[in-house]
Every structure is written in structure tokens, then in C-alpha cells.
Amino acid sequence: MEENRGKRPTLGEVAALAGVSRSAVSRTFTEGASVSTLTRTKVEQAASQLGYRPNLLARSLTTRKTGLVGLVANNFHNPIFLEVFDLFTRELQRKGLRPLIVNLTDETDALRSVQLLLEYQVDAVVVASSTLPVGFADSFAEAGIPVVHAFGRPGHREDINVVGIDNIEAGRLAARRLIACGYDRVGFLGGPEKATSTRDRLEGFLDVLSDYPKIQTRINFAGDYTFESGFDEMASMILRDLGQGYFCADDVISIGAMSALRRAGYRIPEQVGIIGFNDMEMAGWDNVRLTTIRQPLGAIIKESVNCLGQILSSEDSKPTQHKLFPCEVIDRDTLPVTS
Amino acid sequence: MEENRGKRPTLGEVAALAGVSRSAVSRTFTEGASVSTLTRTKVEQAASQLGYRPNLLARSLTTRKTGLVGLVANNFHNPIFLEVFDLFTRELQRKGLRPLIVNLTDETDALRSVQLLLEYQVDAVVVASSTLPVGFADSFAEAGIPVVHAFGRPGHREDINVVGIDNIEAGRLAARRLIACGYDRVGFLGGPEKATSTRDRLEGFLDVLSDYPKIQTRINFAGDYTFESGFDEMASMILRDLGQGYFCADDVISIGAMSALRRAGYRIPEQVGIIGFNDMEMAGWDNVRLTTIRQPLGAIIKESVNCLGQILSSEDSKPTQHKLFPCEVIDRDTLPVTS
DNA sequence: AAAAATTTTGCAACCGGTTGCAAAGATAAA
DNA sequence: TTTATCTTTGCAACCGGTTGCAAAATTTTT
Predict the structure, then answer these.
(1) What is the rounded average pLDDT of the residues A226-234?
(2) Does A51 contact strand D, using a CB cutoff of 7 Å?
(3) What number is the average pLDDT over the span B140-146?
(4) Are residues B211 and B315 located together in one domain of the fold?
(5) Residue A61 Cβ < 7 Å to strand D
(6) Residues of A with Cβ-Cβ distance to B285 under 8 angstroms
């Protein structure tokens, strides 16, 4: 257990001390290699005396497995993402993988990030975002690196695994819930207009509403998933043309929107109803009590990592997966109760 | 720009194509190495034709710099940490470093994590937490790896850099602010009792109060930095013995505590006042408006990464740094205004 | 006890890069 | 033009590991 401050011991030194060949040491530290019990003990003894630990990077050179997984994201301002983060890192760790984070928030050149992950020889990449430029994940697939796009939508490419939710159906869910309130003027307050998730939810939303021609629908988009964005957008709607019930693209946006409403003197849910999206932890807190649509974060992430694990272990074929989970409405206090 | 699906080209292949030696290629991709313009163009041409990018891990073998930095944390349930995360990843990226995340939340064996980071040859480690077991950061220092402990307290060891705040002074700040409200029964609702940050803040808090013997003080600790924890602790205080104004260890705890108060029918700040800690984004939201103590997150993190950068660039001496920033009170709506 | 089968071992080459060094080439000085 | 100086280049060794292969050691079979 000796520590030799600074300089870390190598294979060779352990071999010398144990009086065996370097291969023997290597084998001792390689799962399922052939070593006699005698040499193994000699090596382990020497290794622990020197405080030896194998250099995983050097090993990766020959094994071609680094254990590194790129985790790419760009929404570092939405509390929901902390949960995502927590789950992903835990799941990955459990599988012996190490997450290498890329914060795309202000990365001027997204392509450069791709390069970087390639240079670090990541075994795979998780893209966790529904607001990245379309085609971003492609670069990895093109480079032959397994990708799973969490919270994405099954897209144009066959070689990108997608795990997420059925956003169209989620839009329908929201529409039905608002309709059940008896509203005849409802609104859709989406996230960034170009995001696929926003578009899909809108599609489902309108799909259901198309059966209710009497109900007026207004459509707006928040610039991003922030409190301010929700606040501002709702504030301007209050001045223009206010509906009775809104489906907001996100819980944080919902909270912003509700603040704008309350500040303008509207009572929720009596005068205006809100249904959010995500069911982040805070949505259940006493001072929020937001009615919202829950996406099964845990399931999505577990599935993503499993999918990755499968690809990484099965050397040969890579069956691309597209798995979408259903969402559910969580009723709290921002929509009127319906029987 | 050709891509050769799956198989990535190596130094040698580029060299062959360019008709130069492998060294020449290596030098072309090494900052400040000696290559003629002619060879450089030939190499660059060949490289881009093959889609070549150097293998950073192989390089690290000889350069002894991986560019990897361990980022160790355990508080993945506090929104403030998302901000911390965002800032750290950005700051590190800006310096060309890549964060390797360790989520210590449920890592059974903290020591094992240390081993792992060592095996990945991280250039340095950032420990971002004030609630890790004392001595956790030590293991890195012992292995000769630069550590900076963000949000820590200057401790028993000389070789661990610490960047954070003066928690004792923060405790004083809170006490003074509560005293200014004219309360004569105040409370301290701390975080985990064993955390150094909690203890320091309590010390400062009591330090100021010791000058006001008339003021009764009650001390309690929340098990962790969560809503529930704050809620439960406050709920039990309501039953036992309620003060007029509380200093809570964290904004999330504050919100939990306030929920308990409101649910029991107390009005804030008229009947009970609260001052929190952190000034997380949400504290400023309309439905919260929490009076709180802000710690300068951005400054702390920038300083941490700078400190790291310095250590990594200056080959020779490693002047240990201890830098503590001051905090400030952010007045909002959960404490009565004072002239 | 000898032969056959099996396990363990070390050698040497390799993974994808970097780098000290001496030779070759280019440029400047004499 | 010759010599001295500076720059560029390739060779070969090395970074810290892994692994195919054949020899050595051990175990099993006859």
C-alpha cells in the first residue's frame, strides 16, 4: 500500500518486483486471463506494495474500449436537467462507463465538440436534448460511433437509436385534458418553435382540437425553456388575447407564465388554467402544485443506457432501436378538477 | 474529408499518403513543433482527405497530459447545483479541459471513485461539495494529483486548494439581518449537522448573537438539502417551539420550511421571517421571492478553474491557494423590510 | 513411467502517438 | 564559392499497456 508521491508505478515495475514477466502482471489484471494462483498472488502482493493501478488509457490503445461515453447536452438552465444528469451519470457508472460531459450551451462550433469526443475515443455518445440542431447526432453515427439520442424523435436516419416519448400523443393528452375543463378558448405555449418536440406536441394538440371546431385555439412559442421566456410570452398574451387554458411546453415556462398571470391579477385555476410538461421535482412543491404531464424520466434514461450497453457488448450486429414511452397527466392544482 | 465508416485513420496512414515520416505528421499536429510550410500543407491535405484526427489518449501516454479533469459531486438534488455544473463545464471547456463526472450520490465506495479517476489519468480533480466526508479530497493530493476543493473549507492539509466562501462570516450576516428585524426569538435551520459549511455558519451566527443575550436562539438541522427535509424540520418546530425568524441553510430547505409554515397558516414575513442561502435562480421567481444570502457562484467557479489552470501550466511549483469570497444579503419578500 | 492433453509462461510485436538525436537541407556569413 | 549557422527531417526508442504464439510446466491418461 505504499504511495510514491507523484510518480505512479507501471506494469514493468510490478513485474520486476514480483519476479515475473510483464505479461503475467497484465494477465492478473485482465478479466478471465490465464494465470496460476501462485503468480497471481505474487503479482497482487507486489502491486499492492507499490500501489499499482493499471493505466486505463494505455490499455484502451490495444483493447479499443475506453469506457468513456460522451454526454452531450445544452439545456443547463432547466431544473429537469439536473434530474436527467443525476440519472444518466448513475446509470452509466453502474455499467462501468464514465461520462465525459459536453456542455453545448455556448459552444460556438458544435462540430468541434464532435471532433473532441472522437479524439477522446469515446465508446459511445448520448445526446440528451430535444433542442439540438437537426442532424447533430448524425456526425457521430457517420464516424461509426454508437449514438443514442435521448429525448429525441425517430428521424431520418436509421443508425441513430432514439429513446424518448411520443410527443404527438403527449400533445393529444394535453388537449383532451383542457377540453375536459369545458374551455372554449385554449392556448398552446410551446418551446422553441423549431424544436421537434415542440412541433410534435403541437401536431397532437391540434389533431385533437380539430374535432372541436367550436374551440378557439391560439398558438405561441417561447424562445427557450426559461422562466423569463414563459413570463414574457404570457405577459404579451395577456395584453393581446388571453385564453382560458394553456398547455405549456415545460414546467419552468409554466411557472413563468403563471407568475405573469398572477401579477396581472388572474387567479389560477379559476380564471386561467395551466397544464405544464415534465413534472419536475419542484412541480409538486407546495408553492407550485402544477398540473402537468409527466414523462417517465427514469425509464427513458435506463432504457437509453441499456440500449448503449447492448450495442457495446454485442460486438457484431447493431440493431437500431426506437423506443417511445407514454406520458401521463399528473393532476394538481392549476387546472379545475373534472369529475 | 472522406469518412471511412468505423475505422479511424492513424498517423502512419496519413504519413504514407503524404509521403513523409510519421514524425512529420506528429509535428504538424503539435503546437509549436518544427515543420516546413511545404510538409505541413502536404500533411494537412492528406489528413483532411482521410479525415484524420489525432488520438488524444495515445498522445497522453507520452505527454503525460490527458486534458481530463475529474469533477466530483454528490448533491444532484439541489437546483443550485445545475448552475454549478453549467459554470464548471463551461469554464473547463474554455480552458481545453474535459470534465469527467463522478456522481458520488450512491457510489458505495468513495475510495473506489478515487481509484477510477486515477486509472483514467486525470490531470486534476475538482471536488465540488461541502458535504463530502472530511478527508475525501486528500486521497487525490496523496496520489500527487492537483485538487481544488470548491465550496470547501481551508482545512488540515496544505496541499489542497480551496475556493469558497467565508461561511462563518455568512452566518454573521444572517444573524445581523435577523436581529435588524427586531426579533427576540430566532432560529438556525442548518443543513447536515456534520457538514463543515453548516458548522461554520452556525459558529458565525452564534458569534453575533452572543452579543444579544436577550435573544433566544434555537438550533436545528435538516438531514439534507431537500424540500422535504426543510418541510419536515419546520413542521416539527411548529409543533414544538416556533421562532420569529429563521436562517435556513439553503434555498431549497427554505422553500420547504415556508411551505410547512404556510400550510400551518402562518404568514410570511408578517408572522415568521425566513432568510435562505445560495440565491439560486428560482429564489428570484415571482412565486418565491426569497430573501437570501448570495454566494458568488460564478466567481468561485472561475477562480477554481483558474487555480487549476495555473497549477497545470506551471510545471514547477504548486503554490496552494485558499481563496474565500464574501457573500451578500439579497433582500426580497420573506423578511420584513428594515429602514 | 511414458505419452498425451492441458495449463501457464515469456517473448516479441503491436496499439497510436511523441521526441532526442544526428544527418540532411537550407540560409546566412565570410 | 566555401564555411558556419539554423531549420527541417527521419530513425528509433519509448509511453504503459495487451496478446498471439510457441515453449515450458503441469496434469491427466494409458
Answers:
(1) 95
(2) no
(3) 87
(4) no
(5) yes
(6) 227, 255-256, 259
Residue A25's pLDDT is: 98
Inter-residue contact B321 to B277 (CB < 8 Å): no
Which residue places its CA closest to the C1' of nucleotide C14? A62
Mutate to test the interface with A, among B4, B90, B101 (most CBs of A within 10 A): B101
pLDDT band at B250 (very low <50, low <70, confident <90, very high): very high
In a domain, residue A339? The reply is: no
Point out the nucleotide closest to B23 (alpha carbon to C1′). D10
Q: Do A98 and B116 touch (CB under 8 A)?
A: yes
For the residues A303-328, what does the mean pLDDT come to?
Answer: 86
Element (H, E) at B334: none
| Chain B nearest CA to A50, separation (Å) | 12
pLDDT band at B222 (very low <50, low <70, confident <90, very high): very high
The nearest alpha carbon in chain B to A264 belongs to B286
- Nearest CA to CA, how far is A103 from chain B (Å)? 6
Q: Is residue B63 part of a domain?
A: no
- pLDDT value at residue A155: 77
* Nucleic strand D within 7 A of Cβ A121: no
Predicted local distance difference test score (pLDDT) of residue B233: 96
| Contact criterion met (CB below 8 Å) for B125 and B64 | no
d(C-alpha B165, C-alpha B149), whole Å = 12
Q: Is the CB of B49 under 7 A from strand C?
A: no
CATH number at residue A79: 3.40.50.2300
Can you tell me the mean pLDDT for A268-290? 96
Query: In this predicted structure, what is the pLDDT of residue B4?
Result: 52
Chain A residues close to B5, C-beta within 8 Å: 142, 144
Percent of chain B whose pLDDT exceeds 70: 96
Into how many domains does chain B fold? Answer: 3
Residue A5 has pLDDT above 60, yes or no: no
**Residue A63: is it exposed, middle or buried by C-beta count within 10 angstroms (0-12/13-18/19+)?**
exposed
Q: What mean pLDDT, rounded, does chain A reach?
A: 92
Q: Which nucleotides of D are covered by protein (CB under 7 A)?
A: 7-12, 14-20
A25 touches strand C (CB under 7 A): no
Position B339 scores a pLDDT of: 65
pLDDT computed for residue B108 by the predictor: 64
B129 in a structural domain:
yes
Residues A106 and A134 both lie in one domain: yes
A82 burial class (0-12, 13-18, 19+ CB within 10 angstroms)?
A: buried
Region B125-139: what's the mean pLDDT?
A: 82
- Same-domain status, B280 and B307: no
Same domain, B157 and B305: yes
> Does at least one atom of strand C sit less than 7 Å from the CB of A57?
no
Say yes or no for a CB contact (<8 Å) between A287 and B7: no
Q: What is the mean pLDDT of residues B97-104?
A: 95
Measured CA to CA, the distance from residue B143 to residue B116 in angstroms comes to 12
Q: Of A141, A140, A160, which is closest to residue A150 (Cα–Cα)?
A: A160
B47 and B136 within one domain: no
User: CB-hemisphere CA count at 13 Å for A33?
Assistant: 12
State, as a whole number of angstroms, the distance between the CA of A29 and the C1' of C2. 37
What CA dihedral angle connects A204, A206, A209 and A213, to 10 degrees? -160
Structural domain contains residue B210: yes
Residues B89 and B144 in one domain: yes
pLDDT confidence tier of residue B107, bands split at 50, 70 and 90: low
Collapsing DSSP to helix, strand or coil, A3 comes out as coil
Same domain (yes/no): A157, A186: no
* Rounded Cα–Cα distance for residues B234 and B255 (Å): 10
| B172/B125 same-domain check | no
Range of the domain at B205: 167-295
